[in-house]
TrEMBL record:
SUPFAM superfamilies: TPR-like. The keyword Cytoplasm applies. GO terms for cellular component: cytoplasm; kinesin complex; microtubule. PROSITE patterns: PROKAR_LIPOPROTEIN (PS51257), TPR (PS50005). This is Uncharacterized protein. Belongs to the kinesin light chain family. Residues 1-21 form the signal peptide. Its main location: cytoplasm. Pfam families: TPR_12. It is found in: Cytoplasm, Cytoskeleton. TPR repeats lie at residues 108-141, 150-183. GO terms for molecular function: kinesin binding.
């Protein structure tokens, strides 16, 4: 039996045992996350869907319900099922807010995911509102130069870039780049990605020479052998 077939058989067995109430929530989450990592998004969707009732056994407003819903929404989003993903993210967000209050990293994570979802739909006003709020929470809780803040900056920058606002996007990508270089070092793959994103923003405002310099840096990072 090949590894792929074995993984599929294991996932099918998990679904059966979940349906019979014999599998734990923890085991279901582990299996679903494994399916996500393998890119088996439809399988992950089925596992997380079956895991939601297991999580609800802890209480409808238990944090584990929100965790399960967030993973289910992630599986939907990975398949391009944005209409299905949004209400699930919203439900997870409501539970996190009930459990933690308005200012918590779990809340920021759901705001971020919803913001990215709206950006992909071209709903930029909603995306800006959600991503700005997520950034504000992370800055308040983690400080201005945390890697999680860099991620929030990049997501907000990508929203501005999608609208064609290279100036706003460039300023945010530059901030994110400084944080990543500080924490990850100058040769990290995330730094290379940030350099390319920043270059795209600079090209939007006609700063082509600067953009080309950033792109060369990114290319040099990717060309270095892994240690």
């Amino acid at each position: 039996m090949t590894r792929t077939v074995a993984a599929g058989a294991s996932a099918l067995l998990l679904l059966v045992t979940l349906a019979c109430g014999q599998q734990t929530w923890e085991a279901a989450m582990q299996a679903g996350e494994s399916a996500l990592q393998r890119g088996q998004y439809e399988q992950a969707e089925k596992i997380f869907s079956a895991a939601v009732p297991k999580a609800e056994e802890f209480g409808l407003h238990d944090r584990r319900v929100a965790v399960t819903l967030a993973h289910l929404a992630q599986a939907y989003s990975a398949q391009g099922k944005f209409v299905e993903a949004e209400p699930v993210y919203l439900e997870a967000l409501k539970i996190y807010q009930d459990v933690h209050g308005e200012t918590h990293l779990d809340v920021a994570a759901m705001l971020n995911n919803l913001g990215v979802l709206h950006r992909k739909h071209g709903q930029y006003a909603d995306a800006q509102r959600l991503l700005t709020r997520a950034l504000s929470i992370k800055e308040k809780l983690l400080g201005p130069d945390h890697p999680e803040v860099a991620l929030a900056l990049s997501n907000l920058a990508a929203m501005y870039l999608a609208q064609g606002d290279g100036e706003q996007a460039g300023a945010l990508f530059a901030r994110a780049l400084a944080v990543r270089e500080k924490h990850l070092g100058p040769d990290h793959p995330d730094v290379a990605k940030n350099l390319d994103d920043y270059a795209s923003a600079l090209r939007k405002v006609g700063r082509v020479a600067e953009a080309e310099g950033l792109e060369r840096r990114a290319g040099a990072i990717r060309g270095k052998p892994k240690s």
